[in-house]
Specification:
The complex is a heterodimer of chains A (400) and B (189). By secondary structure, chain A is of the alpha/beta class. In chain A, 37% of the residues lie in helices and 18% in strands. Chain A is globular and about 70 Å long. With 189 residues, chain B is an alpha/beta fold. Chain B has a single domain, classed as Rossmann fold (3-Layer(aba) Sandwich). Helices cover 39% and strands 14% of the residues of chain B. Chain B has 6 helices and 7 strands; from the N terminus they run ββαβααβαβαββα. In chain B, strands 2-1-7-6-5-3-4 form a 7-stranded mixed sheet, with helices on both faces. The longest helix of chain B is centred in the middle third of the chain and has 17 residues. The chains are: A alpha/beta (400), B alpha/beta (189). At the A-B interface, helix 9 of A face helix 5 of B.
């Protein structure tokens, strides 16, 4: 039991507990559910004020399940947007008015809403977007592919990447806590691979559903909340008019750097609530390292086990956050590496680019952007093993 | 606080990109060092008492009586101004002023340097300014002026200020007044 002087309850009648208690101390029980259902269970415990959805399908049923939470009284406001762009705009309105907000999207819907993401960051709203990555390439795909994450990297939003339903559940709760810190206060995009995680069932450990995060306090925000009744809020967040003069340019420059500074300030909070920005798996002495996130990290772990049978030591560095990028953690984790494989679920290799960028001049390892699958293809562990065996010149025994 | 001058492609310094983060709770930031709050308060008071045209820039959170703490803080801001012999120039609004701000009577986060230039301000305190706007303004001031900036913040602080005092509420501001009175006495003022 959390030590508190007085017991506080949220609108749903749940006992409000500290983030530390909810994430690390509360007893947990095992459940068997999909990633979408894990989203629902996280939102149930997050004292969410508002959620907006667009009835896209088959993205996932996460948004629909949040609607069920509204019916049950766990979410304050829930409505349907006119389009994906409408959803992301309306989410912004809810957040500017002081609400803790969450929505979900994927694939082409992400691109249709895209203008809103840098706007979210620039207006310093701590909204959460659960992105069930699904690909954006033509011909239209509804299959798992995380190309859209590459497009989102420089929107000014934090980007966290969950490997499985358990990660997703914990990241959604931690995401609100970190994003709402007054010196951070930028959106968090919690990414998970569509279908692989959103639609499949797995075991997940959940704390009781009668406890929840403390409600959001918008009066700690770094911009005035739009509140027509309370004086500071009467001063709307008018943008500086984009006049062609040095003052406008200068303000915009300072503003943009401030948004990116806010992401950097999230590092210590994210380290605390995610228990580190990376996770390492496998033999620490291995010179062959997989750097990956999401499902690719899960498959790389399987590949490490298969490689053990081949007598090859390998390990995985799973990146939990992409923005902020765990630069120092990665440098430390690969300091003895000779080969760094970056397996990915997209055609462009955006994570390989990130790894090369941040390790440039800091690692002598050869970075290999492989294997890479896209458009809905799976990445069997054997495919990863095959790439490694090709490099080492060993015979490929596994039949695909 | 960042090194004076451009940071990367930005015309302005950005402390975070030089590895300077806000101080932990209970501590203060002085230039790029984490120090005891008492020491930072003393140096802040000294800067205000020894530099030309010291000025306090109160923001909306202490200018408007939107809660009881704001009322109390507003009284303390006036008291601090008296002790430090400082002017008060408000930042009552965050909207940019076109065609031209009146720099004698107000400051704006989008072009704070105009007010500092006009009044030849060499030391200032930001108090009650929402954090985002304080951060935008402090980067500009650092690059465009030679003003010594002090952030008296109710939240986590501002690493782009030269001195950052974080979690400053009524009790802390009262303590600052006591420290300022001591420093003033030491300086024989």
């Amino acid at each position: 039991m959390q030590a508190t002087e007085s017991v506080i309850y949220n609108r749903a009648g749940q006992r409000v507990v500290s983030p530390e208690y909810l994430l690390f101390e509360a007893p947990r029980t095992k459940h068997f559910m999909t990633g979408s259902e894990a989203v629902k269970e996280a939102v149930r415990r997050a004292s969410v004020d508002a959620s907006v959805s667009y009835p896209i399908t088959p993205q996932s049923e996460a948004a629909h399940l949040i609607g069920e939470l509204w019916v049950e009284g766990y979410v304050g406001v829930y409505f349907r947007g006119e389009s994906e762009f409408g959803v992301m705009s309306e989410i912004a309105g809810c957040a500017m008015a002081g609400a803790r907000t969450i929505t979900t999207t994927s694939g082409p819907g992400t691109l249709r809403a895209f203008e809103n993401f840098p706007m979210w960051a620039g207006t310093r709203i701590p909204v959460q977007l659960v992105l069930m990555a699904r690909g954006v390439n033509s011909p239209l795909s509804i299959q798992p592919d995380n190309l859209e994450v590459g497009f989102l990297l420089d929107t000014g939003c934090m980007i966290w990447y969950a490997e499985n339903a358990q990660d997703l559940f914990d990241m959604i709760l931690a995401g609100f806590v970190v994003a709402e810190q007054p010196d951070v206060h930028v959106p968090v995009i919690t990414v998970v691979d569509g279908f692989f995680v959103s639609h499949t069932r797995e075991a997940i450990m959940l704390p009781p559903d009668d406890i929840a995060l403390p409600p959001y306090n918008p009066y700690r925000a770094p911009m005035p909340v739009i509140d027509a009744e309370v004086p500071p809020g009467r001063f709307l967040r008018d943008p500086f008019v984009m006049k062609s003069n040095y003052i406008s340019y200068a303000t915009h420059a300072s503003w943009q750097w401030e948004v990116r500074s806010a992401i950097e300030r999230s590092r210590p909070y994210a380290k605390r609530y995610l228990k580190g920005l990376i996770e390492e798996f496998g033999d620490p002495s291995a010179e062959l390292v997989f750097v990956a996130c999401g499902t690719a990290a899960a498959q790389a772990k399987e590949a490490v086990r298969l490689l053990e049978d081949e007598g090859i030591k390998a390990r995985v560095v799973k990146l939990k956050t992409i923005r902020p990028f765990p630069v120092e953690e990665l440098k430390g984790a690969v300091k003895n590496a000779k080969y760094i494989f970056v397996p990915e679920f997209n055609v462009v290799g955006w994570l390989e680019r990130e790894v090369r960028r941040y390790l440039y001049g800091h690692s002598d390892a050869e970075v290999i952007g492989s294997p890479r699958v896209a458009g809905g293809m799976t990445m069997p562990a054997e495919v990863i093993v095959q790439e490694v065996l090709k490099l080492t010149g060993k015979e490929v025994k596994h039949v695909l | 606080m960042a090194t004076l001058g451009p940071s990367g492609f930005s015309p302005y310094p950005v402390a975070v990109y030089e590895g300077v983060l806000n101080p932990p709770p209970g501590k203060a930031l002085m230039f790029n060092e984490i120090v005891d709050e008492e020491l930072a308060m003393r140096e802040a008071a000294r800067a205000m008492l020894t530099r030309a045209n010291p000025t306090i820039f109160p923001g909306p959170q202490v200018l408007y009586a939107w809660n009881e703490e704001a009322r109390e803080k507003a009284k303390l801001v006036k008291r601090i101004a008296q002790v430090l012999g400082a002017k008060i120039i408000p930042m009552y609004d965050y909207r940019p002023k076109y065609p031209k701000i009146d720099p004698a009577v107000e400051i704006n986060p989008n072009h704070p340097n105009l007010t500092i230039w006009h009044n030849r301000i060499k030391a200032c305190i930001f108090v009650g300014v929402h954090c985002h706007y304080a951060n935008v303004a402090l980067k500009i001031i650092r690059a465009e002026t030679d003003c010594f900036t002090i952030a008296m913040c109710g939240m986590a602080g501002h690493e782009d200020a030269m001195i950052t005092l974080r979690d400053q509420h009524v009790e802390e501001m009262e303590r600052f007044i006591k420290v300022a009175e001591e420093v003033k006495k030491e300086l024989g003022k």
